[in-house]
Write the structure tokens for this entry.
Amino acid sequence: MIKVDFKINKKALDILNAAHEKALPLTIENLSTAIESAQVVPFGQGYRSKDGALVAGGTLKRSQSHGVIDGRGFISWNTPYARRLYFHPEYNFSKLEHANARGLWCDYWIYQDGKKDVINAYGKLLKMCAKGVIK
């Protein structure tokens, strides 16, 4: 039988919690910048909506917001048509302003190799914010 004794270092845990609170928003900002740099969010030339109103080009891109609420990071696009565009990759998106515009524009960072980039960025930022607690 192996006996193990350990003591919790409350000061180190407090530093790690504070580091997380600093690193998460920085990671979300980093991700937002990566999405913008990849030019995957449809920009559009502008079109008329169902009610006939002119929707200016770039409205979807400009509607993007990001942040942290209750310890959870988010990035969202706040237009009435954002969900429709996101879940319909078969649409013929204009490539004039954003060369890689497509539906499912965040899937690379959610399900594919970009997820590793987000995890690694968070790890580096957490380590930086942890003031030497993480070696």
User: Anything to note?
Assistant: The chain has five helices and four strands. Residues 10-38 form the longest helix (29 residues).
